[in-house]
## 1
Amino acid sequence: MPAPDVLLRELQARREAILPHVRLCVCSGHTCSQRGSEAVLVELEELCAEAAGKGVGVERVGCSHQCDKAPVVHIVSKRARPVLIVECVDDPLQCERTVRLALAGDGQPTGAPCSGITSGLMGLFERRSASARWEALRALGRAHDNKSRSLALEQLDEAVDAELRACAMDGAAAARASRRAARLRARFVPKVDRALKLRP
């Protein structure tokens, strides 16, 4: 039987092989959670789903002890050192910039924006709907009872519908919005009915 240190090295090597090239580690400490880290986590997962195949993963981590800069995301790359820290990630554009930074730091071409959220091209309705989706995700992260959770889920569903309508005229944006809507609804919206049944 191999020595324990040999086994440990083998396990670490296997773990490194499985892990994505770049990991976006979202702080889930109390302050970050209060300032919307759950929304950051979901938004980054959505952006990474659009950038599929580029080796970017998202995970929740414990408190990073940078509470004055919350919400905080650490970009951990297999290739680039040291760890990059992105502070005050508090809107969809910041999330997109974080993914771009992760891809650029890993030596990958960033190309077109993952989500299509670019301030120069995005129309007023699209910006408003993205903002509404973001606020719904933040409310969902802060919900502590069934009533507030069900209200946040309804708000999210309305925001997703608004985003689909706002992107309807742009084929690529509409396709992205449709994929995002399907993922978000699969993740959250089926829980609305269960939450509503539990309302007092």
## 2
Amino acid sequence: MVKAIGIDLRADIAKKFMEYDYEEYNSKDSGMYVAWLTQDVDYVLNNGVKPFYMMLNQIISVIASLIGATMIHWSFIIIFPVSLLVTMITPKYLAPRMQNVAEDYSHESGIFTSKIKNIMLGFGVFLSENCIDKMNIQIAKSTTNLEDGLSIRSWKIQNSQ
């Protein structure tokens, strides 16, 4: 269905600029017409048509499942909406926690990246001093610090809620 809509949309756009006269057609860069037929249509399909049909499919699936489950036993008519509400509310409740975890991970990862970059920039020094094994030790130490930092932050988040 989405493919057919894309074909129709491209055909409509092509018809539109086939109505242009020579001067009007050449008033715009040909790249603009190509963009209309490719990127713009893809954008409409990916951000409008596909999500609409995906949502429609999910709604129909929920309704069909509810009807089927009700035919098995009437109590499912109560269980399904309750479980649906729980499924919808849980991500909203956990979103702040997940945001904190993501920010903490990003922060710790940034520190780790900076340390590893500094170690890698010192490769020549480690090599000239004949102590590459110390470089490996520094990398291992930074990795351990990263994991420890993430574990501590994760523990704090779990216990603060």
## 3
Amino acid sequence: MLSEGGFTALIPINEVAQSELYRIDSFSSGETSLDSFLHSEAANLHSDHLGHTSLLFHEDFASVVGYITLSNDAIPLKTSEIGDLGLAYEIELPAFPAVKSVASPSIKVFSGRASAN
């Protein structure tokens, strides 16, 4: 499913076709920790509902061209903020629910260091 510019929509990591998994393994952003996360951890965290990783592909590149992982998080509230959230009902939360962008690297397409198919 390619768009006019050759990009796919963001595809959840668990929906990548078996025949396309090699494209994940060949991804390199230049940051070892981000690459390792995608190669070794992202799919497990996704299947355990601890993070949601989506991938972006392009027809001219053999690997994934970018990805983003969102995870559940919480912002701890100060004692003075608990119960004072401005909600229409009373609730005391020790933390405010949040979503965190864990990673969103891409290959170095624009620096000329990525190679096309």
